[in-house]
Design a protein that fits this description.
Helix content of chain A: under 10%
Low-confidence stretches of chain A: none
Number of helices of chain B: 0
Largest interface: A-B, 23 and 24 residues
Distance between the termini of chain A: 37 Å
Order of helices and strands of chain B: EEEEEEEEEEE
Oligomer: heterodimer
Radius of gyration of chain A: 13 Å
Radius of gyration of chain B: 14 Å
Mean pLDDT of chain A: 97
Mean pLDDT of chain B: 96
Order of helices and strands of chain A: EEEEEEEEEEE
Number of helices of chain A: 0
Number of strands of chain A: 11
Strand content of chain B: over 45%
Chain lengths: 107, 122
Amino acid sequence: DIQMTQSPSSLSASVGDRVTITCQASQDISNYLNWYQQKPGKAPKLLIYDASNLETGVPSRFSGSGSGTDFTFTISSLQPEDIATYYCQQYDNLPRAFGQGTRLEIK
Amino acid sequence: QVQLQESGPGLVKPSETLSLTCTVSGGSVSSGSYYWSWIRQPPGKGLEWIGYIYYSGSTNYNPSLKSRVTISVDTSKNQFSLKLSSVTAADTAVYYCAREVLVRGFWYFDLWGRGTLVTVSS
């Protein structure tokens, strides 16, 4: 099975900051990686698919990059509504696997 | 607008079988473009994929749960269901049903239910 490792597990940043989260796969997954945002008490929401493609309707301050085993998720200018937990997820193989999540807080 | 809604008991006793149903409204579970999935999230923890079913009945399960999981589909009721046997406290979680879609070679979960908390306790 493919293991997904995110870092950091939590981070605190100020409004307007640039925020970066990394996700590492235990083996090459090409570009087959998605990013989700989960707000407290809600289901996850797709933000980025295929490592770098922005889902329709998602603000352009969100972006993703990477391929192979190393991936990055970036918020260019943190907004108060971005407070959430973010998950990466691979779909190169079964079983589908998520990272352990990165909890984002406002300073 | 397609929606998913989980239903089932919120409390299950240890060693018994957890049973949940996901009702698809505004769309058809028989559409060939989707896999219908179950995903769970223990309180305060991350997401774990349980498995999926295709409308034809073809399934795939997470090996970590495979011996205890059954996912089925009822196209006449536009529903799919999860059964997890021999539950323990470790199975306490919010259970989500979700739709996985294939678009231009990309797979992603584009639609989720609101989730239902199942607690395993005597």
